[in-house]
Amino acid sequence: MAAVSIRNVTKIYGSDTLALDDVSFEVEEGEFVVILGPSGAGKSTLLRVLNGLTPPTEGVVEMGGEPVTGKRDDVAMVFQLHYLVESMSAYRNALTGALGRTGWIRSLLTWYEDEDKRSALDALETVGLLDEAEQRAGSMSGGQKQRVGIARALVQNPTLLLADEPVSSLDPKAARDVMGYMKQAAEERNLTTIASLHQVNIAREFGDRFIGIRDGSVMFDGGPDELTMEMVDELYYGEQVGKGAPGEGAEEAQA
Ligand SMILES: Nc1ncnc2c1ncn2[C@@H]1O[C@H](COP(=O)(O)OP(=O)(O)OP(=O)(O)O)[C@@H](O)[C@H]1O
Ligand SMILES: [Mg+2]
């Protein structure tokens, strides 16, 4: 059975904004899938539908054969902006991933289970921040903050990790570092991961499989070898590209 199955999902905002148009695909357990597509293609909408935060207008999302009808504790999300509590340490921020199990009241009283504390340290180790556990999040670099955001997501002990442009605010080196840690965490835990990325070249380095969407429809679904420059051009620039030099558009998309 697929870990995640999305079938005939259409999302219309308001009366006429078609954000997703009959999207169907399945993701196997442990797959690392990257969602690509131009601005406004529907990537964030797709991730929010998978997350249970946005109900589809039509169609269904299933996880492990069960329909997703709302937010689930076993689905974790990493965002472009980390939303950390800057005054708290990396460790405390990571621990908040256990809130689904602990509840706010107990967390205010800092009554976390020993297991949650171990899980926070484990997660910080996975993202290479064990030595920085006590550092205030506000004093960390953008890349470190994103890694704390990933650690927090791991503490949730998810069966599905979603990430919406997790490295868009970072320079290419920091972006690669963060993606490397995310990939490693997913591999270590056999964690099914679906991430949207703007940088095609970085996506190519880390994705096992790529789903390209344009105007709410899936235009591409395949592995790194099938994701040719022509395909990338078509995805980002539409059919009119191809009249120029081959790969020209793709270079821009990767810039
Ligand atoms: N909450 C909303 N209400 C109304 N329209 C929305 C809402 N969210 C997204 N849209 C519209 O749905 C379409 C898809 O948007 P979405 O944010 O999913 O695209 P995206 O691929 O994530 O774009 P970007 O790369 O810029 O983040 C766009 O036309 C957008 O304007
Ligand atoms: Mg988006």
Name a few traits of the molecule.
6-stranded mixed β-sheet; 10 strands; 10 helices; globular; 4-stranded antiparallel β-sheet; binds adenosine-5'-triphosphate; Rossmann fold; alpha/beta; 255 residues; binds magnesium ion; disordered C terminus
Count of alpha/pi helices: 10
Total number of β-strand segments? 10
Tell me the helix content: 25-40%
CATH class of the domain at 1-72 and 198-255: Alpha Beta
Helix-strand string? EEEHEEEHHHHHEHEHEEHH
Structure description:
This protein has a 6-stranded mixed beta sheet, sandwiched between helices. The protein is built from 10 helices and 10 strands. It is of the alpha/beta class and 255 residues long. It has a domain at 1-72 and 198-255: P-loop containing nucleotide triphosphate hydrolases (Rossmann fold, 3-Layer(aba) Sandwich), CATH 3.40.50. Strand 9 (209-214) and strand 10 form a beta hairpin. Bound molecules: adenosine-5'-triphosphate and magnesium ion.
Helix/strand layout:
Blueprint: E1 4-13, E2 17-27, E3 32-36, H1 43-51, E4 58-63, E5 66-67, E6 75-78, H2 90-95, H3 99-102, H4 104-108, H5 114-126, H6 142-155, E7 160-164, H7 172-189, E8 192-196, H8 200-206, E9 209-214, E10 217-222, H9 229-237, H10 248-254
Parallel strand pairs: 3-8, 3-9, 6-7, 7-8
Antiparallel strand pairs: 1-2, 1-4, 4-5, 9-10
